[in-house]
Every structure is written in structure tokens, then in C-alpha cells.
Design a protein that fits this description.
By secondary structure, the protein is mostly helical. The protein has one domain. Helix content is 80%, strand content 0%. The two termini are 17 Å apart.
Length: 448
């Protein structure tokens, strides 16, 4: 089969390194505004951090949909089109990416504005926290379509094996966030009423600047995938949505999982909600590392699938998953031994820092299993084998959700922490074993 993808047949180690390094850097940069936000807001107190922690999973959901789920389907389909030498199909993918971004972003904005307040009021009994969360979401989410479009345009670039320009877009987003945060977010002694709107406007500004950068890169003349409205194909759109919505169901379960854990630890008070929220931010920082390597695997694996070399694609997928597991597992082990390194950086209140540290001691050692499951999820987007990663996410959610029936304010907090850790272990092991003895068997059987 003829292919125009330079990824097929290239030295694997060198190619993976060339794609993964800027991929990881770019993904870390994309997630960094959330970390910087916590650093700027901590001077406003635990209530401000707790309010943002309530909205934070919804923003993460927007990123999961637009970059990880539907964005991953975009990358995988782009990679397979380029592996097969079908530039017209690749252009159709780009057109579909723009359409899906605009519609998906607007729908998410409307849903969050209408339904978000019920979540905030249920998750926290502090009126100050819930009011601040509602205010923050009402300001940020009208700009979510821009965030969707940034991620989807970058997904097209990644699908063609271009990790550098998405990393530059991410760098622009982070730099603009820091500049606007320094200008807008008040410092020591600020009130929650002053800090929350300023944080929202800062996030909006960074989205808009990043979108300008993404549009500039996608429109450059040396970019082989062109935006051609006439290339639109219904079959391409439905194919993307079929795979993307299946992946999005995992993203939805992941965010419901995060919301359930927020509800669980909210039962122990604002200090535990804020402390566990800071610990979760470290886990979510690990997601970009997994995603950065995973995005390179999507591109390489998808190109090999498009070129008709599925067995080689599966072998490459396992190597990428192993790299993810080792790297993230080592990071988790490090922070479980020295949790204050992270918690002292992002927290200011001694009680919140201590709660964050307790959370990391229990949960951080499971990061390797988390990376194992999520790495398989990303590789499955190139191989179109998402059923088992989605089922694994369901099992993880089911285990944690059981805590809603037995975890109360009188329950020792460590029990809730071990419940979260157990769910992650089950998730990683189930996904890896199910794929190994299912669609990733090296038997020559073809799965589409």
C-alpha cells in the first residue's frame, strides 16, 4: 500500500523520541495554566481554591473531549489518512474538526451554565464557595468554544506527526496566562470576590491568544493538510463521531469519577476538599505526560494501520504504553515519598498542605497503573480498539461511586483514599489484560 506518511518505516526509537519530547512538553504547557492559577489564587484563601476545585473538573472535561477523546479520534483518523496517502480525507478531517469544535463548545457552555449550580451546591455546604464557583464558571465557559477549537486544530497537526507546533501553541497559552495573571489577579490580602473574576478573565484571555496561534500554524503554506470546505464528507464526520463519542464516554466517566471523589472528600470539610483537590492536580499534571507520549503513539500507530501494517502497529503500541507506565510510575513513587515537595508548592494553609500530603502518600503509588490504563486508551485511538479502555473506566467509576453509600463524615479519611487507590489499580490491570488477550493479540487477526 502506498503511503505518504514519513512515520511508516522510519527508525522507531528515533521517531518516537522526536515526537514524544515536544508532545510531552506541549501537553505539560497546556495543563500548566491550571497549576499557575492555583499559585496565584492561594493568597485569596482556601475558599477560593475550593471554588475553583469545584469547576476545575468541568474545564478538564472540555480538554478531555476536545483533545483526548474527540481530538484523539481526529488525530487517529488523520494519521490513518496520511498513512494511506489520502490527502483529501485528511482535509475532510480538518473541516470536521472545526465544525465539531464550534458545536461541541457551545453545547458544553450552555449545559454548564444551566446544570453547574446544582453540582456546586451539592458538593459544598459553604455558600461563599458555591457562589464563587458559579461566578467563575459563568465567566469562563462562554470562551470554551475557543478552547475546543485550539485543541482540535492541534489534534490535526499531531495526527500528521507534527508535535512542535502544538507545543508552541501551548507555550503561547501559558505565557499569555502568566502575563494576564500578573496584570489582573490581585495578590496578598485579596478577597474571593476580587480574585475569582480576575482568574476567569485571565483564563479567557489565554484561550483567545492560543486560538490565534493555532489558526496561524494550521494556515501556513508548508502545512500539508489544508482547510478545504469542499472536502467535507459525511462519512468522515460520522466516523469521527462514532469513535470520538465512544472515547468521550470514557472522558465523561473520568470526570464523573473526579466529581464523585470531590463529593466524597467534600464530606470531610473545606480543608479536605481543597487538600485533595491539590493532590488531584498533580495526577492531572501526569495526564499531559501520558498524553504527550500517547499522542505520538496515535500518530505512529495510526500511520502503520493506514499503511496496512497492523501487527507492527500493535507492537509499537505496547512499547509506548510501557514507556508511559515506567515514567509516570516513577514520578508517583517519588511524590508519595516526598509529598510536601508538591503540596507545599501549591498550598498556603498548613492544614490543606497536610491533607494534600496524606492524599499523595496513598494515591500517588498507583500512578503507574493509571498510566498503564490511560496509555492503552490513547494507543487504542490509533488502533480503533476503544471498547476495553472505556469498560475499564466504567469499573473504576463504579468502585469509587460505591463510596457514596458508605463514606460519611465519621468514616476515617484513609478509607476513602484507599478506595480511590483500589479503583485505579483495577482500572489499569483490567484494560491491559483485556487488550492483551483480546484485540491486541499477535495472531494476525484483523480488527477494524
Amino acid at each position: 500500500m502506498t503511503t505518504t506518511s514519513p512515520l511508516v518505516g522510519a527508525p522507531l526509537g528515533r521517531t518516537m523520541f522526536r515526537l514524544a519530547v515536544p508532545g510531552v512538553i506541549g501537553a505539560l504547557l497546556f495543563s500548566s495554566p491550571a497549576l499557575v492559577e492555583a499559585t496565584f489564587l492561594k493568597s485569596a484563601g482556601a475558599d477560593a481554591l475550593a471554588a475553583v476545585a469545584l469547576v476545575f473538573p468541568l474545564i478538564i472535561l472540555a480538554g478531555m473531549f476536545s483533545a483526548g477523546a474527540i481530538g484523539g479520534a481526529i488525530s487517529g483518523r488523520t494519521a490513518r489518512a496520511m498513512g494511506a496517502g489520502d490527502h483529501r480525507e485528511a482535509s475532510a478531517v480538518l473541516v470536521c474538526a472545526v465544525l465539531i469544535s464550534l458545536v461541541g463548545g457551545v453545547v458544553m457552555w450552555l449545559l454548564v451554565v444551566q446544570l453547574g449550580p446544582y453540582l456546586y451546591n451539592y458538593a459544598s455546604d459553604s455558600q461563599s464557595v458555591t457562589n464563587a464557583a458559579q461566578r467563575y464558571a459563568a465567566l469562563v465557559f462562554p470562551a470554551i468554544p475557543a478552547y475546543w477549537l485550539v485543541n482540535m486544530l492541534c489534534s490535526v497537526l499531531r495526527g500528521n506527526g507534527d508535535m512542535k507546533r502544538p507545543a508552541l501553541v501551548a507555550g503561547v497559552m501559558l505565557l499569555s496566562y502568566i502575563v494576564f495573571a500578573a496584570m489582573l489577579i490581585p495578590g496578598e490580602g485579596s478577597t474571593i470576590e476580587e480574585a475569582i473574576p480576575a482568574a476567569a478573565y485571565t483564563m479567557i484571555a489565554s484561550y483567545c491568544v492560543a486560538l490565534l496561534a493555532a489558526v496561524y500554524f494550521i494556515g501556513q503554506r508548508n502545512q500539508p493538510i489544508r482547510f478545504l470546505p469542499g472536502a467535507f464528507r459525511w462519512a468522515t464526520l460520522t466516523g469521527i463521531l462514532k469513535q470520538g463519542l465512544l472515547a468521550a464516554s470514557q472522558s465523561m466517566m473520568t470526570i464523573v469519577y473526579a466529581l464523585v471523589t470531590t463529593l466524597l472528600f467534600g464530606r470531610f470539610g473545606t480543608d479536605w476538599l481543597a487538600g485533595f483537590g491539590l493532590a488531584v492536580r498533580l495526577e492531572l499534571i501526569m495526564v499531559p505526560v501520558i498524553f504527550g507520549i500517547g499522542a505520538s503513539i496515535i500518530a505512529i500507530v495510526g500511520a502503520y494501520v493506514g499503511a496496512g501494517q497492523r501487527r507492527a502497529a500493535i507492537s509499537i503500541a505496547w512499547r509506548g504504553v510501557l514507556i508511559n507506565t515506567v515514567i509516570v510510575g516513577c514520578v508517583g513513587l517519588l511524590f508519595s515519598l516526598f509529598p510536601g515537595t508538591w503540596c507545599g508548592l501549591v498550598g498556603s494553609d498548613a492544614t490543606v498542605i497536610d491533607n494534600c500530603s496524606q492524599s499523595l502518600r496513598v494515591v500517588a503509588p498507583t500512578y503507574a497503573l493509571f498510566a498503564l490504563g490511560l496509555g492503552c486508551y490513547f494507543a487504542s485511538q490509533g488502533l480503533n480498539t476503544l471498547q476495553f479502555p472505556v469498560l475499564g473506566a466504567f469499573f473504576r467509576l463504579l468502585i469509587v461511586a460505591s463510596g457514596l453509600f458508605w463514606v460519611s463524615q465519621a468514616t476515617p479519611v484513609v478509607y476513602a483514599l484507599y478506595l480511590v487507590a483500589c479503583a485505579v489499580v483495577v482500572y489499569g490491570l483490567f484494560v491491559a489484560l483485556a487488550l492483551r488477550y483480546g484485540p491486541w493479540r499477535q495472531t494476525g487477526t484483523s480488527y477494524s
